[in-house]
Amino acid sequence: MHFEQVIGQSKTKEVLRSMIASDRMSHALIFLGPEGCGKLALAFAFAQYVLCSDKQENDSCGKCSNCVKAAKWIHPDIHYSYPTVGSKAVSTHLLPEWRKAMGINPYLNVNQWLQSIGAENKQGNITKDECVEIIKKLSLKIFEGSHKILIMWLPEYLGKEGNRLLKMIEEPPPNTLFILVAENQELILNTILSRCQIVKINQLPDEAIQETLMQRQNISQEKAAATAHLAEGNYNEALNLIENTENDNAILFLEWMRLCYVGNGVSMMNWVDRFAKIGRENQKHFLKYGLHFLREYMLLKLAGADKVRLLPNELKTAQNLTKIIEWDQIEGISKLFNDCAYYVERNANPRILFLDASLQLNHILKTKVKV
Questions:
Q1: Domain range 246-366, its CATH number among 3.90.1150.10, 1.20.1050.10, 1.20.272.10, 2.60.34.10
Q2: pLDDT along the chain (371 residues), means of 10
Q3: Predicted TM-score (pTM) of this structure
Q4: Any bridge partners for residue 178, and if so which?
Q5: CB-CB contact of 136 with 168 (8 Å)
């Protein structure tokens, strides 16, 4: 992948190019940024630029053997690691699926990736066996390029298994480069963070997403502008909005809010039974959407509808809720959603967890603190 194929991020690209030009590249980098900002695409472009045998001023040549193979994710000196499902799963077994997914959309989120490999109700992880495999791969000699490179997508999924890689990261073989592509710094072991140089990557500006949508998706300027505004700096979300005029999480969330406000126990139980079957990764994304809705709801109360990044039906619901949900209730609901996300991550029973959450949400919605 060329740098020019990566949307925006001109300052970050310049920083990465200068690392190589000045020969001051750290052997371990963390590309840290929000979902859909292009950090994984940047990792691909950077790896290709490192190995390119005929570097241009601002980009890789795209013609040498290293570039051709890197662009197809088949270079023998670039290794990939990413969340999989199963206690003994390793990334190598899923390379065909990985190449296909990256060829379609290198901005995809982890839930889309896991669903594409048949995760169903299982959570993703990076396993002990994967760490052992990484150490073996990086202990081999360089095949063709100037470096051996590991691109690990979402090291947050390592958990405590990351300790197995500490010695390799701290004292790697010569000309070995680690590129960890992360979204949540708090979920990465501090011992790994201390051994890496962090490259922070910002969310994309609306203008960059708008221009890219017009060029690559062939849509009108008006639709591209509206989509970019709703996507909130997330190009992957912009693509999802184009493909689906309705957001599945939005429909599910608004249904849950209505049921909890009414407080019918049977209806809430039926909703929980259905929701418990969608899988933990989907449940985490649902809660993430809920927190997004609350942020936009607060913005609606503060600044009005013009600044809000919600679809029309979501905005209408949010406007109706302004008569019901006050500031003190927003705080309680946000804490509830964060707590749920914490327990989903730790394999809590979804039926018990979300039935309890439904009852708490009903209590919050029906209770107003008098000031």
A1: 1.20.272.10
A2: 93 92 89 95 96 91 94 95 90 94 93 84 87 94 92 92 91 93 92 93 93 89 80 88 70 89 91 88 84 87 78 81 83 91 87 94 76 35
A3: 0.75
A4: 28, 150
A5: no
Specify the length of the chain in residues: 371
CATH architecture assignment, domain 3-200 = 3-Layer(aba) Sandwich (3.40)
Residues 6+ apart with CB under 8 A from 162: 131, 155, 188, 189, 191, 192
- Tens of pLDDT, residue by residue over 11-27, are 999 999 999 888 888 89
Q: Are 134 and 178 in contact (CB under 8 A)?
A: no
Q: Which residue has the tokens 């909130």?
A: 232
Q: What whole-number distance in Å separates Cα of residue 246 and Cα of residue 230?
A: 12
> Where are the chain's structural domains?
3-200, 206-243, 246-366
What distance in Å separates the CA atoms of residue 222 and residue 283, rounded to the nearest whole number?
A: 33
Alpha carbons 350 and 275: distance in angstroms, whole number: 8
Contact between 293 and 318 (Cβ < 8 Å): yes
Structural tokens at position 215: 């060029």
3-state secondary structure the chain: CCHHHCCCCHHHHHHHHHHHHCCCCCCEEEEECCCCCCHHHHHHHHHHHHHCCCCCCCCCCCCCHHHHHHHCCCCCCEEEECCECCCCCCHHHHHHHHHHHHHHCCCCCHHHHHHHCCCCCCCCECCHHHHHHHHHHHCCCCCCCCCEEEEEECHHHHHHHHHHHHHHHHCCCCCEEEEEEECCHHHCCHHHHCCCEEEECCCCCHHHHHHHHHHHCCCCHHHHHHHHHHHCCCHHHHHHHHHCCCCHHHHHHHHHHHHHHHCCHHHHHHHHHHHCCCCHHHHHHHHHHHHHHHHHHHHHHHHCHHHCCCCHHHHHHHHHHCCCCCHHHHHHHHHHHHHHHHHHHCCCCHHHHHHHHHHHHHHHHHCCCCC
